[in-house]
Amino acid sequence: MVEWTDFERATIQDIFSRIDKDVVGPAALSRCLIVYPWTQRYFGSFGNLYNAAAITSNPKVAAHGKVVLSGLELAVKNMDDIKQTYADLSVLHSEKLHVDPDNFKLLADCLTIVVAAQMGPGFTCDVQAAFQKFLAVVVSSLRRQYH
Amino acid sequence: MLSKKEKQLIREIWERLTPVAEDIGADALLRMFASYPGTKTYFSHLDIGPGSAHLSSHGKKIVLAIAEGAKDISQLTVTLAPLQTLHAYQLRIDPTNFKLLSHCLLVTLACFMGEGFTPEAHAAIDKFLSAFAAVLAEKYR
Question: Using CA atoms, how far apart are residues A129 and B1, in angstroms rounded to an integer?
Answer without folding.
Answer: 31
